[in-house]
Amino acid sequence: MKIKLTFYGPYKLYGKKEELLFDSDISKDYGIYLWTVKYKNGYLVDYIGETGRTFWQRMKEHLIETFGGNYRICDPELLSKGKEKIIWNGLWRKETRNKIIEFIDKVEFLVPLIKEYINLHYVFLGPLNVDRNIRKSIEYHIAKEIINSPKPFNNLLPIDIRFTKPKNIPNEKIIVEIKSSETIHGLKERLIING
User: Fold this and answer.
1) What is the number of H-type helices and E-type strands within the chain?
2) Could you say which residues of the chain have pLDDT below 50?
């Protein structure tokens, strides 16, 4: 099976209307998406996701979870240099779930940093109308490629995010041809997935 995956973007989550993800036609699609930051002559990936709902819906959820303290926040200044320093580790991990009061106590300090953190990001969208398990398998393999890339290309993708390989994928080889109009460091042009 051959699949073509093209990443469009970069899009912003807020800012100039011509760059805004929420005003784009592609936001009505679904598939695989990459959160990235500009780095030298391209972009570093710091999150990979897949969705069967629209990109619009999923990005709205990301913003709500980020501003609500559930997701990790990294120092924006260091992130722009390709380095990760966690300033808030989120509330979704086992060891952080009971830190809601700490988040409330720090919210006035964190909100301006969260806004700066969000503004630093560029999102690439890869529409992909395939079975959910195939989509999740492609997400898993892209994450694996980024994680196994040389430094600094793998600096920002958190190693504690669980990208799981689905068990129910076709028992045939899947070749994924990947394109992007921009350089996304660590992203290969071809993935071979053995079912």
Assistant:
1) 4, 8
2) none
